[in-house]
Amino acid sequence: MTNKRPRLLFSAFNEFVLSHHDHGGWRRPESRQLEFNQADYWIDLAKLLERAKFDFLFFADVLAPYDIYNGNRDAALRSGMQTPVNDPAVLIPILAHETENLGFVLTENILQEPPYTFARKLSTLDHLTNGRIAWNIVTSFLPGAGRNLGWTGLPSHDERYGRAEDYVNVVYKLWEASWEDDAVVADRERGVYADPAKIHRIDHVGPYYDVAGPHITQPSPQRTPYLFNAAASGRGIAFAGANAEVLFTSGGLKEAPESAARLRAAAVASGRKAEDVKIFGGFGLVLGSTTAEAIQLDQEVRESQILESILVKYSGFWQDDLGKYPLNASVAEILDSGAARGATASVLAGAADKDISFETFMRGAANHHTVGTPEQIVDEIVAWQDAGIDGLNLHYLVSPGTYEDFVEHVRPILVERGLMQEEYAPGTVREKATGLGPYLPASHPAQRARRALEEARSQDAAKPQESAIGVTSND
Ligand SMILES: Cc1cc2nc3c(=O)[nH]c(=O)nc-3n(C[C@H](O)[C@H](O)[C@H](O)COP(=O)(O)O)c2cc1C
After folding, report:
1. pLDDT tens-place string over residues 278-289
2. CA end-to-end span of the chain, whole Å?
């Protein structure tokens, strides 16, 4: 008998769009991505993932067309690159109703809506999904999103993280410290639904948000949804280390050990335990029954890719208009010219072969996936685990084909080796992922905020006030 490995968590990386990271996989005849506006396409995907015991269906989100490439939105719209994009919060309840165990990760950026209404939305989703909702906390990177949300542009990186810190403090207080555990009485006989003395204002006064409360929704199965965050900058990693329960490595497998160690260190630096956080890597695959077949299929997938779509996306990620580099210039020529700066310069400097053209390099950059037989893919997944990661976010090159291939050919080997769960654990998505309870652990800042508010209230408890309707209220 083979020695079983610890299981990894698996997430299907998606966005409520035609084209997420596939750059044109939607053109392939077997793709169903053109059905993305229809619920059935997503229901079928969610059911497939649940049959295969995936932990999460992850929805990324953006609130503007990618508009850095060539200084406009045209190429994003032309190639369907993450535009148009529908609202995942509307889709998730439909998918939750069709499944029982799959978790749903909702990305919403902190500029999008006031923390008060956002907290209500997430509590509602947590109720409706029976505790299967996670929030991917993002601060946005598209200038257009800032313009669409009432700013003249995107607030600076520092200001966005400053806002994020204040924003999470508000929602933590609403989720954790507003309603006491036994505030809901639901007593038919007395006609009492809730005890107002156990439902408190939060009276948050912060640098960006002043919110009185109380939370307008009663506590949901997890109270605070399971928390995700992906960050790359120093400030971002410090924020993720303090707040997130799932954090993403930057780069690929080679960078994973250092990146994972840095993320865990950020959690420890903020008073949490290294094992309080799960570290995820990103992963894609093209599968064949032989290596030669896999390479042939990969070639076909690459041919369907739209170059513009690749340039649009990386212009956004690297915050640099890639339209200014000649496609036929070599990587070395671009580096020598000194034109490339920031992320573009460091990515180009890492190119193994600097004599290839910029176009060839970019087509390769868009193909951070493993090409091989199921056994080769499993070897790669084992290497990710050995690099210190706890889970993988699996992006598609063609949907649902990538997931169908994975489920049919890779999953059985993973299950046999202990790397993928055979059955779901009971409970909320936090319980399923961590094996612990439904709520945030005591070391999380939200629980610290809860304790601080409870303490302040118990000091006040000696002086209860008489409310206008004659019910004692301690808020
Ligand atoms: C797996 C993954 C998913 C992400 N999803 C989104 C997203 O849906 N929306 C978004 O605005 N940013 C998204 N990002 C970007 C990050 O939130 C973050 O802004 C980026 O990694 C830069 O890090 P920094 O904010 O520390 O500079 C994602 C990043 C990763 C690695």
Report:
1. 999 999 999 999
2. 60
